[in-house]
Each structure stands twice: as structure tokens, then as C-alpha cells.
Design a protein that fits this description.
Blueprint: E1 2-7, H1 16-23, H2 27-30, E2 35-40, H3 45-48, E3 54-56, H4 69-85, E4 92-95, H5 102-107, E5 112-115, H6 133-150, E6 153-156, H7 159-169, E7 176-178, E8 200-205, H8 214-222, E9 229-234, H9 241-247, E10 254-260, H10 264-273, E11 276-278, H11 288-296, E12 300-303, H12 308-311, E13 319-321, H13 326-338, H14 340-353, H15 359-373
Parallel strand pairs: 1-2, 1-4, 2-3, 4-5, 5-6, 6-7, 8-9, 8-11, 9-10, 11-12, 12-13
Helix pairs in contact: 8-13
Length: 374
Amino acid sequence: MKILLCTNAFENITNGPAKFANLVLQINDRYPQHQIRILTEDVSESRLTSLKYVYKVTLNYPGFLRLFGQFLRMFIYYNKAKQIQKEYDYDVLVYINSFNGLWASLVSDKPTIGMINDDNNLRTNFKNFTNQRWAKKIIFKYLEKLSAKHHKGIISNSDYLTQQILKAYSLPSTRVTRLYKSIDLDNTTFQPHREFKQPIRVLFIKADYIRGGLTVLAAALQSLQPLTFELTIIGPSQGFGNHISSIFKDTTNTTVHFLGEQPQATVFTLLTTQDIFCVPSLQEALGVANIEALAYGIPVVSTKAGGIPEVLDNGNNGWMAVPGNPLDLASALQACIQNTEQRLQKSINGRRYIERFSAPYMFKEFLRILEECK
């Protein structure tokens, strides 16, 4: 089977879809009977020369049409895919963002598969108007719904998200398949023993830090005095530095180290040196960062939001608080800090549990899904 995967995120690895796009290239070596190639806008010319299976698409349109760039992208990607088809006659066309594959789902002579990786569009409705971005989100929701109805199949990344898609888009259960996004477990170092000296080192990784519950974490840490903390924040761009500082202006027992966007190597190093991984998300479709944390053995304190319980095995692999509740989060953090034996057991449970999120397992499931849709 020949696969062409279209993704707007590839080189800049800041989220689960980008990690997935890089990992699936291993299919070419692991399964010689299959081929997969990537079409992306997010790859530099310097790196492109060393990538055998990656094509670059350039988004060329006049500046005055920039407002419609998200819509134009679907036509530009499909036109490039048709050019590639002349030399690489793929069997199935996969879009890592279902919405971007809308045009292809309507006109392609090859079966198309769309991936929905979060519930950002799903949760938008006429009752939750918040700001001027709401209109854009509501349009995206209905276009994503249209794409979901026309693709041969939809891939979600958790049982929670699968149910949300089926309900919001009124799809039959056979149209949506869950595929857990994985990590490369072979290249992780499991270190469940952490020092927990004062100050306690807490790691937060989330680009959308509001959705990730950073304000809730600030309040929870403040309530845990006389304990002291060092909080390292990774993910948000440097432009949000002032706002993040304002969140912690009243948190007197916490020293904040805001590092902004960082490469994967830095993230993995910190997962081996910090004491607690805590992203108390308000909403989360799955939470690949929690999987990475479990792989490295760092104790995980999170919430019961979305697909997080699927990763933490309903609390067997970590501690879960009520989303948006600082006191409940503080209680979970305190339980993690005080129970040395429980920390070790939950870390061991987690490392064993996430074998289901291993790359080889994901590859087999991904290929099976595409074969069935094809």
C-alpha cells in the first residue's frame, strides 16, 4: 500500500500531530511492503535535501487573501498531491487535519482519510460565544463536519474524542476509528526515582498554557505553603512572557523559569531531571506529553479532562484532579509529594501501561485502518 500523508506541521515539533508525522516515516523501513510519503509546508530547504520521503508544498497566494489562507490551503495541497501522483501513485490520501482535506474528500479519485486530533472545533456552538474568533471557529466546525462526512474514514486519538466526534457530527460508529498517538519508547530512559528536595521541581509543557491550566497550577502551588517550588514552563512563545509573569505575581513560594519554545532534546532532558510533571488541563483530547512523562518515569499529576484518564489508567499511573479546581489539584500534588512508595508504584504502572502507546503498535493499527478504508 502506498500512502501520502498531508500535514501542515512537521519540522517544528510542538504537538502530537507533528510527532506523529515524523514517527510514521519509520513505516518505510519496518514494513517494506508499504510506502509512506509526507507532503508538508513545514520543512526547510536545508532539511529537505536529506529527507528521502518528504515533499514540500509552498503556499503561494496574494497578501490580500491571507485572511482566507486556511481555506486556500486545501486547494493548494490537493493540487500538489495530484502532481505527486504522477510519479508516486499512492493508494490512499491521508490528511492529518481533516478540514484541510475537505476539497480532496469531494473530488479525489483516491480514497481520503481525515484525522481529528482535538475537540477545539467540536466544542464551539451558538451558546458559547466568547470573542471575535468565535465566528472563525464556528465556520471551521461545520467545514470539519462536512469533511468528516465525505472522507472514507476519520481517525481520532482517544475513546473520549471518538465519542465527541460521533455525537457532534452525527456520524455512524463505523466511520470513526481510534488510533492512539504513540512515542518512540525505544529511545527513552526510565528513571522513576526522583529526589524531591526543597524546592520541588515541577515541569509544565503546553503551548496553549490557558487550556493547559497554568492559572490553576499557580493557585494550587500558592496554597501549598510552606513548601517551595521551582516551576519550569515550556511551550508558549516568548511573546507570552509578560502574561505568564502576571499569573504568578501572587505566587510567593514558586520560582518560575519560563523557557518558551524548546526542541525535543531539551524536553526529554528535563523529563529526567525534574520531580513532577504537571499539566492540569482544562480540556485535552489525549495528552501525548503525559505519555512521554510516563515513559521517563517522572510522577504525573494532571486532571480528569477528556482523554487524560485513558493515559493515566483512571489514576493508576498518576494523580488526577477535577479540572479547574486549584484546591483539588493542590491535594493531588500533596499526595504525590508525601507518598514515596506510591510514586514509585504509579511510575512502574505507567511505564508498563504505555506499551499500548508504542510506535510499532501504532504503525500496525494505522496500516490496518487504511487497508480497511482503502
